[in-house]
């Protein structure tokens, strides 16, 4: 029974055209594209990233909530308290849906749980700092934020300068030794 629900949710995301679906696909593409260039990336890591992208926001009830990357985002601050609470809890709710998936694993679950954490400990749901964020989660967090910035880009054309600027904005927000290599790899792989 749980498997049918999981497969239905996955199908809806992969076939959808809302912000959650677009973010899922672009985040997966970016993170696996960058990690795929690393020497130790295996097909198991690629699979974990893909599943994390699918399940990270699966419990959000409104596609617009994807825009709330942090508690400091203006879009988040404007929401009523019950909606803020829903957004803050989705990193702990989404793993519960992932556990119903037949190939669930603890590494992917950790990425899903940590996708809104920040190196200074000001993320959610647990407010952990960079030394507690897994390396795969670091790549996923950057890819997730970059995907959102690209999806919300106001012009039709996105230039390499735009991408470089977005990565620099994200690196200012996520400044930490554990994320420095991640930013270097994103810039190198995206050639910006």
Beta strand count? 0
N-to-C terminal Cα separation, in Å?
Answer: 46 Å
What is the overall shape? Answer: globular
Report the biggest beta sheet as strand number plus sense, adding barrel if it closes: none
**Helicity range:** 55-70%
* Average pLDDT rating: 90
**What is the chain-wise order of helices and strands?**
HHHHHHHHH
Polypeptide structure, described:
- The protein is mainly alpha-helical and about 190 residues long.
- About 60% of the residues lie in helices and about 0% in strands.
- It has 9 helices and no strands.
- It has helices at about 1-15, 20-35, 45-55, 75, 80-100, 105-115, 135-150, 160-175, 175-190.
- The longest helix is centred in the middle third of the chain and has 18 residues, at about 80-100.
- It starts with a helix and ends with a helix.
- The model has no long low-confidence stretch (mean pLDDT about 90).
